[in-house]
Amino acid sequence: MKHLSKNNLKFKKMKTKVLSLAALFMLGAFSVFAGSKTEKIEVKGNCGMCEKRIEKAALGVDGVSKADWNKETKQMELVFDDTKTDLDKVEVAIAKVGHDTPKHKATDAVYKALPECCLYRK
Ligand SMILES: [Cu+2]
Q: What is the CA radius of gyration of the chain?
């Protein structure tokens, strides 16, 4: 009888260990996904030069791992770590190099300094 309850206790302890290990593992897996966010935004621009400028500006923001702008659709696909940065910061960085985003527009001075082929405002 005594022996059995001891075994039972051992089993309970083991169960707790396995459960906490499983919880730890799930937490780890969750945090990997939690850091990575994908967003699509519209960024104004015209040509291949714009594409390089826009993507460089976005990738220059700490936490951004992917920036892919399409000059036909004007859509930008972004992947970033949302514990390090957010969409607003990326939009500010893009506006700074002369391109309008949904929430942040480039200043006239920066816009006018763009090469002629890149002037997208009509
Ligand atoms: Cu351009």
A: 25
